[in-house]
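Researcher: I'm preparing a figure for a lab meeting and need a structural model of a single chain. I don't have an experimental structure, so a prediction will have to do for now. The sequence is pasted below. Please return the structure as tokens so I can convert it later.
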Amino acid sequence: MDGGSQWAGDPAPVRSLGGWSSTRIGRPATYRRALPVDGTSHYAFHIGELALPVEVVVDGEARIVSPIDPWVHLEPGQGRDVAVTAPHWPGSGSGPVELLRLEAVRGWQVEAQNDAAIIALAGQDAEGLAVELPWSSRPARRRGSTSPCPTAACRSGSRASRSA
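Model: Understood. Here is the structure written out token by token.
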């Protein structure tokens, strides 16, 4: 909600989305505030437990956020002004609204595994793709030849492949 100079402090308190009562049932209500973004990091703005899609305007750019995809990615520098507009419907508010600073995960390490661990992994069930049978893994052959064709050049019938 935009309370203008009525807010008690900075940053202004945020009511939960849809968490108020009014006689304006079904009419759009807009909740607006600045987000504490640093201008250099990526952020994820998350509206949890949405019951209905809402419009989210970030720095003048509008998008629809739905219960299926309740996330807005904020590029560095975005998010200084955010407005969420939803039809007022008592009980259709959201859960927690979160601003998450995204940071790259670094420092991955590769660890060798002993043969017993590799064999144990190989014996586990796994998802796979269906393959039409019979399946052949034979290499391609030159046109009119019975010998395998090792390069794309011989498959095209180029002069270099004929002399090989």
